[in-house]
User: Fold this.
Amino acid sequence: MIAGHGDDIHNYDQELKVNFSSNIYQHADLEPLRQHLSECFQLVANYPEPEPRSLERLIAEHEGIDPEGVLVTNGATEAIYLIAQLYRRSVSIIPQPTFSEYADACRVHHHIISDDTDNQLRQLPRDRVYWICNPNNPSGNVLLKPFMDYLVRRSPRYTFVVDQSYEAYTLEPMLEARQMQDVTNLLLLHSFSKTYGVPGLRLGYVTGHPGTIQLLRSLRHPWAVGPLAIEAGKFLLSQGREAVPDLKGYLDEADRLHQALRQLPGVRVFESKTNYMLCELSAASATDLKQYLVREHGLLIRDCSNFQGLNHHFFRVAAQLPEEDDLLVEAIRQYLESL
Assistant:
């Protein structure tokens, strides 16, 4: 469950120049947050709220929903495991490839798991949980908002868990909690980590029908979210400083990186509506490429060989600064020429 994700920078003793393995923009201006938390450091001398209700109220105001429809979690990952626990021993449909924690959490709680093939669906019970990552990780594809709204509302017998952790990294419209308050079969996952570029804080939240949120709340242990994370969440919401100040400009740079990688012989780059993109090497190994880039250039990419449905030819990168993206393209070019 823990091993095999991107951003495994902790595995390397050498100092890395650029981290392309995480889908998060690495150049967010966190100085105001650092200064604020340094002034609030005394919070660690006391227990935080057993439940981060003060932050939930601020999120509810931000989202325009009932505070009882918000649950702040220790990263979006805690929400995934709580939902899997709530629907323990259910049938879960998880289209692949996608974020591995959905299946891992479902296995822990003894779900029957399907990857959404027609033959499997005909044999499974009709009461199901659908796990949808939108924008999807690792592919970067986005399901359109009208389609998602139609899908959820026309299928009230199914429960839909829609992970919108990367909603701040696409210009495509996403489902909004305020517009889905009347829907009882939907849970939306959100991530401070991605939106504000603070994955180390472990801060996320889930929105949904108050009745379902209350059931999730009853499953969690107290003090799941630390005091500095709660304070950081309040500060970030009040400031409104997302990780990417110019999303269109950033996505234009991601498209430039996409086009540059496509020009490399033996590299296929899949279409993406986000800042990150899935790539496939026609002959070389992504594992070897990753090791080469770390060793020779100090660059870290995401080896995608452990995603279900992918193999050792696949890797993923997220755009960073133009000069850093150019370093990556040139380093991959050198690797391919050395084969």
Q: What stands out?
A: The two ends are 33 Å apart (CA to CA). The first helix runs from residue 31 to 39.
